[in-house]
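Ticket #4471: structure export looks truncated?
Reporter: QA, pipeline team
Priority: medium

Steps to reproduce: submit the single chain below to the structure queue and open the exported record.
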Amino acid sequence: MANFYTDTPQFRHYLQHPLMKRIVELKERNYADRETYDYAPIDFEDAMDSYDKVLEVVGEICGDIIEPNAEEVDHSGPTVADGRVTYAANTQENLDVLNRAELMGMRFSRKYGGLNFPMVPYMISADIVSRADASFQNIWMLQDCGETIYEFGDEEQRNNYIPRVVKGETMSMDLTEPDAGSDLQAVMLKASFNEQENQWYLNGVKRFITNGDADIHLVLARSEEGTKDARGLSMFIYDKRSGGVNVRRIENKMGIKGAPTCELVFKNAKAELVGSRRMGLIKYVMSLMNGARLGIMAQSVGISEAATREAYNYAIERRQFGKAIITFPAVYEMLANMRAKTDASRSVLYETCRFVDMYKTLEDIGRERKLSPEEREEMKYYSRLADAFTPLGKGMSSEYANQNAYDAIQIHGGSGYMKDYKCERLYRDARITNIYEGTTQLQVVAAIRHVTTGTYLQRIKEYVAMPLTPELEPLKNVLAKMTETYEKMVETVVAAKDEEYLDFHARRLVESAGHIIAGYLLLQDANKNQELFRRSAEVYVHYGRNELVKNYNFIAQSRIEDLAYYKPDLTEQ
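Actual output as written to the record:
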């Protein structure tokens, strides 16, 4: 009997982080629900025990059912007929099992039938599910769209839709169109209001919609006649029960084959406005996508974990020249880096989750009562950190998922190229992680202002002030020197006072900040549990130092004029 929670002790380590006590007390409103719900925790220890037990169930289902189903799901995939999607039989089994275990709607409050989980244990479940089958995580975790209804919808919409998600109905977010991918302000799907019927109708086409035949959709549409920018877009709820939307086709993808990616045709589809007109992209989609990016971070970490384990197990068993290949330096160096990148990604993921938990929960409390000045400052502080760490973590973890999946195949050699081995599927599944919910290049665009305004550097200084055991001080000294180099890099690029030059080096600056932050987080982890984290901390800090030096050398030797070498020649166009 496999259990993907209990076989990964790192999860319990992150549940025990000191900030969790504050997070849980805020989330539980000092355990007020114990008077109303018999399954609500009575104190912090009871809440932690509940998280632990639920995650054990998730881990068991993933190890015994979802992971064994994954290969067949990859081969068969979903189908479409008469405008409707049918999941692969094994995908439906996965959904049914999780629904019977009452594991849908984990984040929603008990008022709507949910478990009221903070982000940290919820993302642990996403991490586990992704290790089992990354494509299934895409379907299961779209329940997160319900958070947008909770935050911005009215009470009637919350009561209508969130309990349905908790009971197992699926969701999708319908943003992308044939001519509106990363540039969502180009969305043209039309929303028209019929005053006589007091009803909104949607008409147009959406493309690349994950789980596009879901029960409940969040749809970005143009509600304001004559507009062409973000200010003309609003957010809508479309209920599949109302009809009016058909699936034209399912995309034939490289990976994540279990999750149907659909082209949708809206023909006078009835819809409900969420929140205020014109705020669809400016406010609601930004919130929706930040949550989705956390989910992709968890998906990336789960894929990294699966790839690392597959490579390690194969390297132990595979013998060449009379030895297990794990004894060869070229192989064990790859494996050590894979484990270090996985642990670094996971450390950044749960640090980001803690920041999101703090500011989102305080924001929610602010809807119930007036926050104190101290609470408002606390919310502002964690909101800024969440805004900084989300693109940093999404970019870093998805790139590492791709690198680890690549290295897993390399360790398998020719066998890894065959569909007989799981690593071939992991490689295909990983490739989308640094593309959807904003490419790595777009994550850099979102993150670079936190380089230039000093958000990352300030947080690094806070890590420096945290105590460490003496044996970890040498690694801390390496990170201190890396930080000095990072400051020089930032100063050099910013001093040029050229936006194009800053954009050109933005990736190098953001990556360098990420290496230092991940190094400090692993040191903090190792400070509490050296057996679990010290080796990864040592490997990652030295890996990060070498990457940072490479970035520094590139910047130190570059000039603004050098950009001309890279620019395309459009004179013949």
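Status: closed, not a bug. The export was complete when the record was re-opened. Leaving a note from the reviewer for reference: The two ends are 62 Å apart (CA to CA).
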